[in-house]
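[09:14] KT: can someone run the structure on this one? pasting the chain below
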Amino acid sequence: MITEDRLEQSLKFLAESDETSAEASANVKYLDRLLKRKKALYITGETTLKSISAKEQGFYASDTYKDAVEELFQAEVKATTLENKRDKEGMIIDLFRTLEASRRKHNI
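[09:31] RB: done, structure tokens below
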């Protein structure tokens, strides 16, 4: 059974995690754009390779790309975890509402 205390915890978590959730989501988008910028800078700065394709492959093989992808991965894990927690708390609130409605109708 979901208690009123648990309902309050859910509401508090949702209220307090708005900004954190937005920042985590925005960070994923930022890092994705930054990855594209790093690729462009690498390609334009690479002078030893002639073709764009070779420069692009060089970028994908570089530590710069590896580090950027790892950072993006960590940001996506953080954002998704927070989103999942927020969804879970929302489900608890919805379930509490359903249970309360059923109690009022004497179905439980």
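[09:33] KT: thanks! The chain has a mean pLDDT of 94.
[09:34] RB: yep, looked fine to me
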